[in-house]
Known about the structure:
Layout: H1 2-9, H2 11-34, H3 52-62, H4 77-80
Amino acid sequence: MQVTNFLSEKKSIIIEITILCVFLGALYYGYTLISEQTPVTTENTSQQLYGPNFTMLFKVINEDRVVLGPLSFMDSSIARQLEDFSEVISPNPVRGRENPFAPYR
């Protein structure tokens, strides 16, 4: 009888402590996942740091003009099947209240 009486009186405290322990355990588990050290690998330093594609990208970016290629892809059957769902939104002639923050009368 004493044990059940003690548990009923301290039920909310026991639940709170259990939830706190689960929460702290989840935080610790998340911290261990984030803080895992990845192995450090070193490569031969005689290799070029930038590949030919990266160098070409820098050359293209440094150009002042951008040349777009021909739009021949728009003549394909897939591009012709595209539909235009855009709508023209016209201004609404009905205006709302002058002061929308004023109390409603």
